Amino acid sequence: MVANLPAESQGDYNCDMETTPTTNMVPSSLSAAPLASREHIVVTPGVCSGKPRVDGTRITVANIVVWFERQGLSADEIVSGWPSLTLADVHAALAYYHDHREAIEARMEADERFVEELMKSQSLNVPLAQQAKETP
Length: 136
What we know:
Blueprint: E1 41-42, E2 53-54, H1 61-70, H2 75-81, H3 87-99, H4 101-121, H5 128-134
Antiparallel strand pairs: 1-2
């Protein structure tokens, strides 16, 4: 049910559950500023093997998870290291990860197993420093 609200208050926040504003929920004091809205996380078949990634980049959600959770980088440090990212991108990627944790972790583990198998099949499991010592 939509209440008859004065035009000047239709965009303001209203807690009345029976009232549904017909415009965006931006307070009038902020309405002069243009709103930048975009999807932060996308999945595109054929791009990054169909893995969820930050829109407009080839940086995957898994990349951000590794930097944040495994390497201990803060969201600010990630943005400093990868200037094409915004804080909103990083936080959206982490939220997406938490919403799809099992699937993303399973894919990350499968990727790690693939790399291990590839290294074994190519005899790349010898550390590079050791290879350098053995090379005349």
